[in-house]
């Protein structure tokens, strides 16, 4: 059975990188005695796939991983068992069955957008609306091989400025991917206030991922659906 | 949420911030206000190395079983954080509570190798604790040292308040009780150290004085405090069944060197190799009960979620119930997807059968440690491995599907001749040749034998039969290395042999630290102050700064290395009773000169002196 797990990454766990988090979950499932399926071959590994990795330093209420299990238990039992083995800062929020067991349903392949809260100091936030209503937002995007100029404007679905934070919904996934850090970098450039080293003392940027989404094929009007809502409760 | 000693900005700025969080699985969480003693254990190297060390896990578990103690951990901050802590004057902190180390009652440092000595000073310095024991006051933590290097603690004597000589499970309880009593009494630091000095196995260096002859040798070593003992007796656990073992070891977030369950199957070794300090000071050989080991294995795998288990001991093949234990583990492993990582076993039919079950033959290699190339020199060092054993094992291995063999040797052993060195090349060649005796179509692997021959340099260690011998100079060692390289190139099967060698400069320094006296402390301090740290990391080792520190303090390193000591010379570590008697070591050193082997403890007792410890193999049947 294919199970999607939604979890939160909070507090000091934001310093744990993606690869370490993968190892962390492998060990946690073993401690919790979740009967995860293993691959074949001489060095078998747990069948597990994460949606979009979170950068070190970010916190999140909407991380996902899919696993295959041999034996089923109810969503509730599984959630409690895993949570019992979690370190402070990681909490399992839901465990749901994904009926489609092909790789087309994998969190990793269907994720298309993610939304975030970004907190910073108020005065700069006030300029954000001017920044975001530009016709195009050009940034230098670095890849492994080269550096090229990209317009990130089409990759930003939606933004909203609150009194102490900015909400943003961005492209995420293998087709098009935009990190909130890059949006903020472009914004700071726009403001000509690149962060000075002395600002670092203040604990400047705080970014929280809220959720990740796939395209909703059933309902074309709303467009996006939370990865969590694609699963069903196991009873 | 847990509070951290470092800001987010610092943590995002340094490499692997998880080294400094202390939020690992199975971490001990207590309210520091509700305990009577706060202890911080330190492994003075980077987190990934320190977290792999079993000894800390054992002591951490043992201390935290007590409700009146909260034991935490600290490791050496990596170079990047080191600079930040200095610049911002942030005191070094313990991982669990993130409180400054200087607020603790005890700082206990395990000293596993000589090249970590500057890292010890880094820990003290960053903790803002005075580097010298003499400069510490009533509010500073008691700085303790333990581990194998304290069998000659003298180079570090100035920096420690107490050295713990022997195994940690024995007298810490007494020390902690004494400390609680002391705290209530309101007396000063010195009065506590006097209490500690009267506990067996605890050495307070400040209560002793060393005097030297004109030729630089030790003239006398005398106690200056009536509570100090004339001789410090090494403490050993009598029966390992009666001491605790960590059933819920810590599981780190980042990948560490030893990322697996470690099962200590026995302590001590029956072999008696004459170069090996561990084989002498951990006598007598004491096995753990197989039924307890099975229980530990199951519990530890469940409590950690580790996917691998490894056996730990000095010579696993000598564990009497090894076959039954491994068979049990293989059965357990099958159902739970656990890998078994086998320590270097003696290569024979049994071990080959086991290895083919638990690892991919194509990817694995076989390891032999003959240590010396010729049978004569192997008899000198009492390495009971014969050419027959090696060639027989290799033949079976090649027929069983292996084509990779790793060979470990030492250069600079006492009594070594050019012939002995050449024999390393010959033995490597012979092993490669065996591979080619197999018909071409049946040869395993790539169709070529892959022999990796490695040499390290011998460093004489205290409490071994070689504690008196002269260590080779740098240029001698390098010459031997070149000679061997040349000889390997002359072999028929040279293309199948890869030769790996080590750095000679580190060896010289290791030699000075291993057999140094109190005067060497000034050099360590000087080297540290001039910027030496992480000396065991090749990329950070600054030999020139060390040489300058020797010169500045008018200490000649060659006095400690390039000198045969006479049997009646007073040695800096003679005040320690390590279990093995001096008479035994002298007898062994004489037998070494005649290339006479000594049988292992199971075959016959050789009267090393450890029988008085009343434990283990000395008292079996």
Explain what this protein looks like in three dimensions.
Chain A has 2 domains: 2-109 and 226-233, Alpha-Beta Plaits, CATH 3.30.70; 112-225, 2-Layer Sandwich (Alpha-Beta Plaits). Chain A is elongated. Chain A is built from 6 helices and 12 strands. Chain A has 235 residues and is α+β, with helices and mostly antiparallel strands. In chain A, strands 1, 2, 3, 4, 5, 8, 9, 10, 11 and 12 form a 10-stranded mixed β-sheet that branches. In chain A, strands 6-7 form a two-stranded antiparallel ribbon. By secondary structure, chain B is an alpha/beta fold. Among the domains of chain B are: 8-233, no CATH class; 236-359 and 579-621, 2-Layer Sandwich (Transcription Regulator spoIIAA). Chain B has 20 helices and 19 strands. In chain B, the strands form 6 sheets. Chain B has a 6-stranded mixed β-sheet with strand order 2-1-3-4-5-6. In chain B, strands 15-16-17-18 form a 4-stranded parallel β-sheet. Chain B is globular and about 80 Å long. The A-B interface holds A 10-13, 15-17, 20, 23-24, 26-31, 33, 38, 42-44, 56-57, 85, 87-89, 200-201, 203-204 and B 1-2, 4, 7-9, 11-12, 17-18, 21, 23-25, 251, 253-255, 301-307, 336-337, 339, 360.
